[in-house]
Amino acid sequence: MASIANYEMVIGLEVHVELKTATKLFCNCPTTFGAEPNTQCCPVCLGMPGTLPVLNEQAVNYAIMAGLATNCQITHFSIEDRKNYFYPDLPKAYQISQLDLPLCHDGYIDIETEKGDAKRIGINRIHIEEDAGKLIHEDSKGTFIDCNRGGVPLIEIVSEPDIRSAEEANAYLQKLRAIILYTGVSDCKMNEGSMRCDVNLSVRKKGETSLGTRTEMKNLNSFQFIMKAIEYEFKRQVESVEAGEAIVQETRRFDQQSGKTFSMRTKGDADDYRYFPDPDLAPIRISEERLRDLSSKIPVLPDQRKQEYVKQYEMTPYAAEQITMQKEISDYFEAVVENTNYPVLAANLIQTEVMRLLTQDEVDIPISAANFAGLVQMTGDGKINSSTSKKVLNMLWEKDQNPVELVRKEGLEQINDKDELIEIARQVVTEQPKLTADYRKGKTAVLQALVGQVMKKTSGRANPVIIKEAMVEILEETEEQA
Ligand SMILES: [Zn+2]
Description:
- The structure is a single chain.
- The chain is α+β, with helices and mostly antiparallel strands.
- The chain has 3 domains: 4-294, no CATH class; 302-410, no CATH class; 418-481, Arc Repressor Mutant, subunit A, CATH 1.10.10.410.
- Helix content is 39%, strand content 20%.
- The chain has helices spanning 57-69, 166-183, 223-242, 288-295, 302-313, 317-324, 327-337, 343-357, 369-380, 386-398, 403-410, 418-431, 433-440, 447-457, 464-481; strands at residues 7-18, 73-74, 77-78, 81-84, 94-97, 104-112, 118-130, 134-138, 142-146, 153-159, 195-205, 215-220, 250-255, 260-266, 276-277, 284-285.
- The strands form 4 sheets. A 9-stranded mixed beta sheet has the order 2-6-7-10-1-11-12-13-14.
- A hairpin with a 4-residue loop joins strand 13 and strand 14.
- Helix 2 (166-183) packs antiparallel against helix 3.
- The radius of gyration is 29 Å and the shape is elongated.
- It starts with 6 loop residues before the first strand and ends with a helix.
- Residues 24, 27, 29, 41-42, 44-45, 151 line the site of zinc ion.
């Protein structure tokens, strides 16, 4: 029996992103999140008979900017279509979307996984559409409808089926989110639903080129769940194929509690939505001038910054990718490196300690760039060791202040004086006859424990490189004497 290693997964992602316009796609209702249910609706977005939609030009501009930032071709002539279906959160019984002539098509983004694999993922299309309302299920009372979200502008970004692992899916989504955030067209908050992801997944034996039957997992709203859902669904499909069962084309629901996917509804080759061009809306024509104007609004994007960092600061591509993912963090890093000679050290501290201290989606670092640079400089110059550096960073996080003065006040300077360290090391050797004997018997791994004792005696301030040298010297001379 063939194992799971003989199979590969083929994944395409459909990502919905809410655009950050002040008003909805076809009316003047506000789009703010979290308002009282049904307070941000009007006859147009409620689909009352006799009303007419008016296209929000800013939403079109934002969609085009997202397309430009993801290397898409922008169409000069685009139309909007009605996608007809009935569901309680859609009072019009059709959604205005785009079928044959999307605004943007044939783009790509480049990703870098943690293992250092670089890859280009194709973007099939980006189209504009309106969001539906929301159903609120309350166990005892029933289900309620909130139409505030109905009519909020969305773009749907459809990838090519180029993704082959959960890690690649994660890297793609993170990168896509970073690019959209840089352009400022959406806040991409997964926890508020302004970025949602559908995963299309099929399996095939490695080396095959045809596509298997795929399932779709809808509305996943955290990177972690997306990866879990992919891993589970891959395994489930491989087991089915191995057992000789056919994969059913269907929509599946991912259950966060159990980590499993469940069948929701099967579907035929294509849903029949009876698409047709919306007769109430004129075609969208995009002039060269408008495209030029929008191109000029695209800022320096994460990939450009990443390449600069790799070249200028000799960072690894993965480290540079991590730092540039959030524009605010990247801006902060650039402000820090202006005031220190140790950019790589600054990047390391940001990637480890700062990222750990920032909670999810938070980007405000409560330490001024000048003070952070001062800390990095002292660390690079050997005035404090790396563990003190982390300690001081945590202190600055609590209360931003001059790190040089703080280190002096708290007596945290690194002890670099070799004579002083030799003396302490000798004390440790005398006090630890067992460890010393072990070392002499060849268990050199105990060196770390002996160094740790010196660290303890100096409240963690000793220069670890010098102690290690001093300790080895003392142990070897003791050995000769013995
Ligand atoms: Zn409205």
